[in-house]
Each structure stands twice: as structure tokens, then as C-alpha cells.
């Protein structure tokens, strides 16, 4: 029987929800690994709605759970209903929605607050010693919830212009966590906390390299599950 994995989304679209390619990559790698996946999102209003063609905010109001259902082909559940006891692991793709909807990092940085159901989900899996996979900006959730943990968001310097958000590594360190520098096709495993992270679109890289990096994260999560 395959491992049971919960995937937590933050909406649909890189600028105000989950990064679609990251969510899809995680689902493809989980499928290849024979995992049984259920998809969740918090039933809350998005912080904002962005016109992805223009890159500018609109006056629309959208719901994170409803928008996430686009990625889940309608097969969605409210994050409030997630029970860690029913799963072997949890994975959070990235996208600005993580920093806007799952927590307030986009506005408050290291002083952010984490959505109550996101926080309780992370705490439940951690307490049960079940692995947590995070990619792109979502490792900041672990950094905020688990002081002292090890994560990667890529590099801590903007190497060759490929890591424009390298300052995130410094903010993670200021939270009392250890940032581990990794390339886009790699992931880092915090064995003590069973937290697996990879940088994904925090690096300007070809899509196939991001896909492969997410694959290493999924593989490590499945090993720990």
C-alpha cells in the first residue's frame, strides 16, 4: 500500500496563490512514487488577487480553498479537516500565496504570523515525527514554527543573478534557524526534525531543473515516511 501524503495549497497562481508548476511537479513525483495523495487548503479569503497578465492587484475577492480546487481538479478538502494521524507525510508547494495566505511573511517578514490551521498541521506532523516537505518560499513556515530547524531556500547570496531573494536566508537565520545553501536540483534533509526543503523557483533556473529539485524533495520525504 502506498504512503498517504497530504498536499497543502495556498490558492492558484504564483503571485497570489500556489505556484502551479511546483504543485504539479510535487503531484507527478508523488504519483510516480505510488503515494496516495489528498489535497487541502485553508477556507479563507486571499490577501489579494493579482492580474497575472499585468502583474498588478485587482479589486476582486477570492477564496483560497475555492481557488486551490482548480489545481486539485475539484477534489479538495478544508485544511481544518486534515488529521495528521491519517497521513504519513505532508508537503507544501511554494508561491506567493504561501507568504500571503498561509502566513503574513510577504508583509511582515520574520515577524509574520502563521495561519492557525497551517500552524496546527505543521505541529501535528512534527509531534508525530512524520516528515514535512516544503519548497520555494514555504520553508519559511518551518523556520517560523520550529526555531532551530534547518532549511534551504537556495543560496544566501545572489549568485550570478540566479537568487534574487537571497536575503530570505538571512531572515531565516535571524529566526534562530540554520540556512543550508543548496543548488536548485538539490534538497536539504533536517534529519532531527524530518523537514525536507528545496528552493524551486527561488532560483532562476530552467523548469526541468526545478522539477528535478522538487523530485529530490519528494524522494527524501518518501524515504522518511
UniProtKB/TrEMBL annotation:
<protein>
    <submittedName>
        <fullName>GAL3A protein</fullName>
    </submittedName>
</protein>
<dbReference type="InterPro" id="IPR029062">
    <property type="entry name" value="Class_I_gatase-like"/>
</dbReference>
Amino acid at each position: 500500500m502506498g504512503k498517504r501524503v497530504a498536499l497543502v495549497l495556498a490558492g492558484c497562481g504564483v503571485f497570489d496563490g500556489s505556484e502551479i508548476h511546483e504543485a504539479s511537479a510535487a503531484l507527478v513525483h508523488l504519483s510516480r512514487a505510488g503515494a496516495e495523495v489528498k489535497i487541502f487548503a485553508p477556507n479563507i479569503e486571499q490577501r489579494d488577487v493579482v492580474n497575472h497578465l499585468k502583474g498588478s492587484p485587482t479589486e476582486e475577492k477570492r477564496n483560497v480553498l475555492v481557488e486551490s480546487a482548480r489545481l486539485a481538479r475539484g477534489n479538495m478538502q478544508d485544511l481544518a479537516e486534515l488529521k495528521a494521524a491519517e497521513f504519513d507525510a505532508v508537503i507544501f508547494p511554494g508561491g506567493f500565496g504561501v507568504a500571503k495566505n498561509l502566513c503574513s511573511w510577504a508583509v511582515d517578514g520574520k515577524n509574520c504570523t502563521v495561519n492557525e490551521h497551517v500552524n496546527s498541521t505543521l505541529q501535528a506532523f512534527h509531534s508525530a515525527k512524520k516528515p514535512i516537505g516544503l519548497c520555494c518560499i514555504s520553508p519559511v513556515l518551518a523556520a517560523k514554527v520550529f526555531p532551530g530547524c534547518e532549511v534551504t531556500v537556495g543560496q544566501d547570496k545572489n549568485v550570478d543573478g540566479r537568487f534574487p531573494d537571497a536575503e530570505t536566508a538571512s531572515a531565516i537565520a535571524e529566526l534562530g534557524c540554520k540556512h543550508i545553501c543548496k543548488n536548485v536540483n538539490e534538497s536539504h534533509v533536517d534529519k532531527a526534525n524530518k523537514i525536507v526543503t528545496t528552493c524551486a523557483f527561488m532560483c532562476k533556473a530552467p523548469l526541468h531543473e526545478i522539477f528535478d529539485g522538487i523530485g529530490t524533495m519528494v524522494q527524501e520525504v518518501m524515504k522518511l515516511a
